[in-house]
Amino acid sequence: MLDDDVVAWLKKKAAEENVSMKELVNRSVRESFSAKKRRTSYKLEWTTYRGKLQPGVSLEDRDTLFEIMEGRK
Questions:
Q1: Are 24 and 10 in contact (CB under 8 A)?
Q2: pTM of the model
Q3: Are 27 and 34 in contact (CB under 8 A)?
Q4: Distance (Å, rounded) from C-alpha 71 to C-alpha 56?
């Protein structure tokens, strides 16, 4: 069963477009499902940057590395 607010919206929209509620619902559902098929899949593009290690930074010392990244050291 459709919610009352949806039925009210359908009645108003159907009257505006001079179509039946059944036709409006069928068309809307078809458009909704076909729109999902047309979407292209998401493509992740990697962005890389060249960098260099700062003097005194050891990637093996996690705590010091976090302190440097957070500006505490």
A1: yes
A2: 0.46
A3: no
A4: 15
